[in-house]
Amino acid sequence: MSDSTPRIGVLCDRLRVEEKLIIERLRERGIDHEVIDVRRAGFELWRRGAPRCDVYLARCVSHSKAQAALHILESLGAVCVNRTGVSDVCGDKMRTTLALERAGVPTPRTEIALSEEAALEAIERIGYPAVLKPATGSWGRLLSLVRDRDAAEAIIEHKATLGSHHHSIFYIQEYIDKPGRDIRSFVVGDRVICAVARRAAHWVTNTARGAVTENIPASEGIETLSLAAARAVGGGVLAIDLFETPDGLLLVNEVNDNMEFRNCIAPTGVDIPGEIVEFVVGVGFGGGAVVDGRRGMAEDSHTTAPLPAPVVVGDVSW
Amino acid sequence: MPTTMTIECPECAAGAELRPDAMAGEVLQCPDCGVELEVISVSPPQVELAPTVEEDWGE
Q1: Are residues A160 and A194 in the same domain?
Q2: Do A161 and A207 fall into the same domain?
Q3: Is residue B44 part of a domain?
Q4: What is the ipTM of this complex?
Q5: What is the pLDDT of residues A217-257, one digit of tens each?
Q6: A119, A170, A173, A165: which is closest to A145 by C-alpha?
Q7: A239 exposed, middle or buried (CB, 10 Å; 0-12, 13-18, 19+)?
Q8: How far apart are the C-alpha atoms of A1 and A20, rounded to whole Å?
Q9: Confidence of residue A141 (pLDDT cuts 50, 70, 90)
Q10: The model scores a pTM over 0.80
Q11: Number of structural domains chain B divides into
Q12: Are residues A289 and A306 in the same domain?
């Protein structure tokens, strides 16, 4: 370990642009680091040795591989960003919704059903159109906009017949008629460092599905709700997806613990990988300690945070 | 000064260039057949067919 700066372990598998940028910032700043391909690492559970790095930053494209590595490293006493508990919650939409609801963070009305019959009943209660999502999906894949009972029956049957056991947990959400975009904010520690609008003609406004990003100021409303959502899942380095409702409310749709940001650096002008590196180094200096005027992660941040006040779009200016 | 390295596509045997700043884990596309190749090693330069997208990949 270095005497001057913490040694950072970057957990990865396939390197995306984001990981390359993070590694580039570590090199530029002369920070002691190690890039660890978790697919080629050996995790000897019987060996209770001290972790080689002061902090591990999870940047695997595979969520389940990241989770496994985080669980192992944290069990050895390693400090991880994001923490295992945060990754567990964010990797499961049901657990994310539970965390948001528990913290009083406004989110689309959601039901979980554990059988085909219950799923159909839940969709009818939510009302059409409804949205069906895999509880553990990403990149906007396998999302269904269900406009009537016929479509509901067909999609449920397909999921039950063709899907893995993950698809037997039906995550059903009210459809929010967004104004052709959603909002993504980037939370690093206790700050919202920037926000973008993701605009698309399609109802799925995900950049992995072709949405175009444009900068928007992180207004007080966006900031309040984003920080509340981040605290609700345990805090760290997180991307918050927000919906604007037709009646003027902001809702938190998702919290991402392994954020992709390549399309958001140019429009916002914010060095997102640099901010992540600075935060991780701060955590390495003692987690929660003040580093360059910024705090690291507070272990109890999610339990002590005050409940957020309702945020309306009228409060938001951009 | 580092120079561009050449690798052979394991799918179509075409030659493809590996940039000097390439890193293990990075993915590139074969200019001939279009298949995705993952850099396994830069010294010596070595690639293999990149894994296809899995259900748990993403944000």
Answers
A1: no
A2: no
A3: yes
A4: 0.72
A5: 999 999 999 999 999 999 999 999 999 999 889 999 999 99
A6: A173
A7: buried
A8: 23
A9: confident
A10: yes
A11: 1
A12: yes
Nearest to B56 among A19, A62, A259 (CB): A62
CB contact under 8 A, B58 and A63: yes
- Positive/negative CA dihedral, A264, A214, B54, B32: negative
Residue A82 domain boundaries = 8-90
Q: Where are the beta strands (DSSP E) in chain B?
A: 5-8, 15-18, 27-29, 36-42, 45-49
Query: Which residue from A88, A41, A53 is spatially nearest to A67, judged by alpha carbons?
Result: A88
Q: Same domain, yes or no, for A187 and A310? A: yes
**Which residue do the tokens 């392994």 mark?**
A258
Tell whether B24 is covered by a domain: yes
As for how many domains chain A has, the answer is 3
* The two three-digit tokens of residue A217, written as one number: 């100021």
Task: Copy the structure tokens of residue A229.
Answer: 């959502």
- Nearest-by-Cβ selection for A138 from B38, B51, B59: B59
Q: How many inter-chain contacts (A to B, CB under 8 Å) are there?
A: 57
**How far B23 CA lies from chain A's nearest CA (Å)?**
8
Chain B residues whose beta carbon lies within 8 Å of the beta carbon of residue A88: none
**Burial category of B15 from C-beta neighbours within 10 Å (exposed 0-12, middle 13-18, buried 19 and up):** exposed
Tokens of A235: 């805090």
CATH number at residue A202: 3.30.470.20
Structure tokens belonging to residue A82: 């994001």
Closest to A196 (Cα-Cα) out of A310, A135, A272, A134: A272
Domain interval for residue B17? 5-49
The CATH number assigned to the domain holding B22 equals: 2.20.28.160
Does the distance separating the beta carbons of A138 and B57 come in below 8 Å?
yes
A62, A91, A260: residue with CB nearest B54: A62
B56 contacts A141? CB cut-off 8 A: no
Report the distance separating Cα A81 and Cα A309, nearest Å.
28
B31's enclosing H/E stretch is none
Q: Of A100, A103, A145, A81, which is closest to residue A288 (Cα–Cα)?
A: A81
Low-confidence ranges of chain B (pLDDT < 50): none
Q: Is residue B31 in a domain?
A: yes
- The per-residue pLDDT for A49 is 76
